[in-house]
Design brief:
Length: 115
């Protein structure tokens, strides 16, 4: 469940980042409201997910997924060019996010373990 909330929060990061760009310095009301709601929900979800997911992993997944989705949206709408290199690097970000999910966390020194 924590991973699902983290991924939804990452999608919301892409939403608020895009809305921030469209807000024109917070002078356009609709994108400004979308930004405010999106950033609030995204941060709340990230904070909740970090109850079970290590902070470094959660933050890397959140920012990486959000950044990849933001760029993909910009390319889909024509705001940024689509190039093979861009797609390759986005695939690298997605691969790294998947890798972070697949790698089991190592126990932290001094942390109590279940018996």
């Amino acid at each position: 469940m924590h991973w699902l909330v983290l991924l939804i929060s990452a999608v919301l990061e892409a939403v608020w980042a895009t809305a921030l760009g469209m807000s024109d310095g917070f002078s356009r009301p609709v994108p400004t409201v979308v930004f405010a709601v999106g950033v609030t929900l995204s941060m709340l979800g990230l904070g909740w997910a970090m109850r079970e997911i290590p902070i470094g992993t959660a933050y890397a997944v959140w920012t990486g997924t959000g950044a990849a989705l933001t760029v993909l949206y910009a390319m889909a709408t024509g705001a940024e060019p689509v190039t093979v290199l861009r797609l390759l690097f986005i695939a690298g970000i997605v691969g790294a996010v998947i890798g972070l999910k697949l790698v089991p966390p190592a126990p932290v020194e001094g942390e109590r373990t279940e018996r």
